[in-house]
Amino acid sequence: MSERIVFIPQKKDEKTFVFDTALFCPQDRLWLAPMQGLTELFFRKAFAECFPDCIDCAVTPFISVTHGDISKSIRKFRDAEPARNIGSLRIIPQLLGEETENVLKYALHLNQMGYGIVNLNLACPSSTVTKRNRGAAILKDYRKVDMLLKRLTDRHPFSLSLKMRLGFDSKKDLDNLVAVLNNYPLHSVIVHPRLATQMYDGEVDLEGFDFVYKHLHHRLIYNGDIVSENSFITIKERFPQIHDFMIGRAFIGNPLLAARLKYGEISHPVSLYDFYDKLQKYYVLYSLGIEHIELLPFEMQEKINLATMNKMKEFCKYFAFYRHLYDKTFTRAKTLTELSSIVFQTFQ
Ligand SMILES: Cc1cc2nc3c(=O)[nH]c(=O)nc-3n(C[C@H](O)[C@H](O)[C@H](O)COP(=O)(O)O)c2cc1C
């Protein structure tokens, strides 16, 4: 199945963009959602090179805040290192933590690395995170949010952005939460309109989002279940003042969607296979840190190929899901070469 699209020659000046599609206004921005293990540097670089000027900004997968000397945790910041991110998507790094002073220490470290905006995760629903009172668990008590924001927005050299859900297990405190958020200077608030207890299941709660839309005084970024031109237009029509759209799973499963939403038809043919091929190479280079795999002993090469195949299968699951293909088409591959050849036959 061939999926080729045609790029309009890139035009950096917003005012001179030619939109083949009525979907997109010049002030609209597309954001890549943070997805641990997936939207890391290798993905963002491959994406920026294959589909230039399609995604405006990415929030990185979370960096977990821990106690102790930050210099011993320097590896955690590798994904956000500015030098490694040259030529990639513009990023805002994200922190996951609950202890105010440690979060502040990490945020100041990111600021010293060159970041003027830091995002704090109040959205992660995973039990391993929430049982430590982090991520969406912080939303259980809006007074805790108040204390965090008071300290984190107190004349520091960085601006704070938040990513949140509508609540932990109920929306009952949403009005209090929004009132707290309105008391502090924030760069932006990304809202995934589900409760944490819903994980990613069921419909997004657009009624709940509407409450935030009507009452929040900050830049509001919509995130959740935009999977196609149709679902994008549904959100745009219902919330005409929203100009920031964050997309996660559908940008992984259908990387051509960003170009479609923004430009309609485009001129530089890039197939999904071209993208996959680059993704695989960049995973080995940027995540595993290996430049010349052919120079390594055979057993080592085998291990690396196995790790790479497993990672690429994670992406293939999303490719399959968003194209209504049978998942097993990809999961039956036993080697990296076999997987590449299946992807080639399916998408080239
Ligand atoms: C595998 C996976 C990893 C995720 N990792 C993060 C993360 O590190 N930080 C975060 O704020 N959200 C994370 N999310 C949530 C996504 O950023 C996003 O909110 C969610 O996928 C809904 O958006 P979508 O419907 O466009 O995919 C993750 C989601 C998934 C499925």
Give a concise summary.
By secondary structure, the protein is α/β, with parallel strands linked by helices. Helices cover 39% and strands 13% of the residues.
Structural write-up:
This protein has helices at residues 41-50, 100-112, 127-130, 142-152, 174-182, 206-215, 229-238, 249-253, 256-263, 272-287, 298-322, 328-331, 336-347; strands spanning 29-32, 57-59, 63-64, 91-92, 94-96, 117-122, 159-167, 188-195, 220-223, 244-247. Helices cover 39% and strands 13% of the residues. The chain has two domains: 14-263, Aldolase class I (TIM Barrel), CATH 3.20.20.70; 272-347, no CATH class. Mean pLDDT is 92; it is low at 1-20. The chain is α/β, with parallel strands linked by helices. The chain has 13 helices and ten strands. The chain has a ten-stranded parallel sheet with strand order 3-5-6-7-8-9-10-1-2-4. Helix 1 (41-50) runs antiparallel to helix 10 (272-287) and helix 4 runs parallel beside helix 5. It binds flavin mononucleotide. Flavin mononucleotide is lined by residues 33-36, 38, 61-62, 94, 121, 123-124, 163, 192, 223-226, 247-250.
Number of strands: 10
CATH topology of the largest domain: TIM Barrel
Question: What ligand molecules are bound, each kind once?
Answer: flavin mononucleotide
Q: Report the mean per-residue pLDDT as an integer.
A: 92
Apparent shape: globular
State the helix count: 13
> Pairing-aware structural class of the strands and helices?
alpha/beta
